[in-house]
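Review form for a predicted model. The reviewer records the input and the model, then writes brief findings.
Reviewer: anonymous (R2)
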Amino acid sequence: MQKVVILITIASFFFGSCNTAKIKSQEPLIQLSKGQCMGKCPVYDLSIYANGKLVYKGFENVKNKGVVEFSISQKDLDKISKLFIESSFKTLESPATKKRRDLPTTTLTYDGVSHSYQTHTMPKKVEEIIKVLEKYI
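Model under review:
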């Protein structure tokens, strides 16, 4: 009986670990979210997964409203990831400036690390990454 309990404990630990890894792989590798302003700013979310799946959700003041899904090549995904790595995105500091009411907030996430910016606080490296990502929408 004791062996059965041990086997069940080991099996539940093993399968529980697999589920955690599976959930992590279902999270986007890259996310770009553009928020509202008081004018005609584009409002959308863009998510790119490690398998190349891209999900775009257009909300307001965008060419394509609604949800669009497609895949990008591994080569393109590698180029984008390289931009994040070369920019030292994970170690960038988020700005500590006061937010302006009429400027939209842009949130960019890579591999679980997020930074939010308004246009006047965005580093050049981040602007370059966003320009590359926006080519897909």
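Findings: Residues 3-11, 17-23 have pLDDT under 50 and may be disordered.
Further findings: The helical segments are 2-25, 74-86, 124-134.
Recommendation: see findings above.
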